[in-house]
Amino acid sequence: MSRAQRLDWVSRPATSLHGDVVVPGDKSVSHRSMMLSAIAEGTSHIRGFLEGEDTRATAAVLAQLGVSIVAPSAGERIVRGVGLHGLRGSDQPLDCGNAGTGMRLLAGLLAGQSFDSTLIGDESLSKRPMRRVTDPLARMDAQIDTPDGLPPLQVHGGRSLHGIRYELPVASAQVKSALLLAGLYAEGSTEVIEPHPTRDYTERMLSAFGWPIEFSPGYAKLEGGHCLRATDVVVPADFSSAAFFLVAASIVPDSVLRLPGVGLNPRRTGLLEALRLMGANITVENQGESGGEAIGDLVVRYAPLHGVELPEALAPDMIDEFPVLFIAAAAAQGRTVMRGAAELRVKESDRITTMAAGMRTLGVRIEETPDGAIIDGGAIDAGAVDSYGDHRIAMSFAVAGLLARGEVMIRDCANVATSFPGFMGLANSCGFALR
Ligand code: S3P
After folding, report:
1. Residue 139 pLDDT
2. Do 396 and 264 have their domain in common?
3. What is the number of structural domains in the chain?
4. Separation of 72 CA from ligand 1 center, angstroms?
5. 249 and 213, same structural domain?
6. pLDDT score recorded for residue 5
7. pLDDT tens, residue by residue, 85-138
8. Which residue's alpha carbon is nearest to atom 16 within ligand 1?
9. Domain span including residue 117
10. What is the CATH number of the domain that holds 429?
11. Distance, CA 174 to ligand 1 centroid (Å)?
12. 171: helix, coil or strand?
């Protein structure tokens, strides 16, 4: 992102938060719905598609590869699938923007094509590790060149892939999904075993698109040689976007917020448990199912939080929520200890270091550990922090500003649009004072 596009925010203290907050569609589900619709037979209709830069980048890549995608209205896409072997190569690089999910899943999808592709990304994505996908894909006989294990990825086409049994060294839904997508094109079976179960959207959606797949928490197996049938997809509201409001209303006295239709896949909702352990008052109403995914309305009321030692096993189920959980810990009484989240160091920024740097600037007592942090709750001072171009860091400090003793200035917030376009307007509609 160039300097000219930099966008700074100021978040001021708020008195209370109230209202209904409809957060945008789930990022993980949106990426996958676009990819599977693109290589299915027939026309799929997606509703609730996230209009974020990340997911639009994935749609643009697939359009560049010859897929017709129409957007009749915001959040709606009609995708005319080209079938498993109908994508056409592009002599231009395929730009994944800021999206690790887009690049890693597309690496798997493109590994089995007849043509070569080059996947590129922005400055942040260009620093993120790719060997975690290219190494196991190479074991399937894919050929992907990656300088120093980083993007760009040169994906060579015309390879005959074969299935493997792979035990993931780290819990990663992106790696699992890349292998399953490559497995569609492989001879024999592709089997993935995880050290801790991760989000299973790829497995569920493959099944919804008619591909035979065996899966259970921490395990997935499929065989090549079938076909995907077009399906209509309803994308639930993104729990990770709801998370900012769950923490905000928990820490600002007299607040009550209702977040309707939020995806409640158990591999995503670790933050609910973590906040409840800290004393939060969050209830789930109107529980149901949409497109095979659990959904519900979350109702969050202010409650005084207290510090806890959070169970390490919760970490993978709330991996994207740690930045805002750090803010909850800063607002809680006493000490919070978080472990098991070393993966935070290879997200859009090193989220342990970037959060710790900003929180220290705001006078919070925080000690970084290799896989988490120890935070002593107390007052949050005014000050200026940097998001390092990381959307979740920016939104987390916007939440911190609600309780601070003065203004919190947050630098470099443009990338909020990657996952949560409209965050500022929605936040202000329920009582934030964000400019
Ligand atoms: C995602 C998986 C997670 C998560 C990311 C989205 C996905 O990454 O942090 O925001 O959609 O599969 P890892 O697979 O690297 O844990």
Report:
1. 98
2. yes
3. 2
4. 29
5. no
6. 62
7. 999 999 999 999 999 999 999 999 999 999 999 999 999 999 999 999 999 999
8. 172
9. 27-234
10. 3.65.10.10
11. 5
12. coil
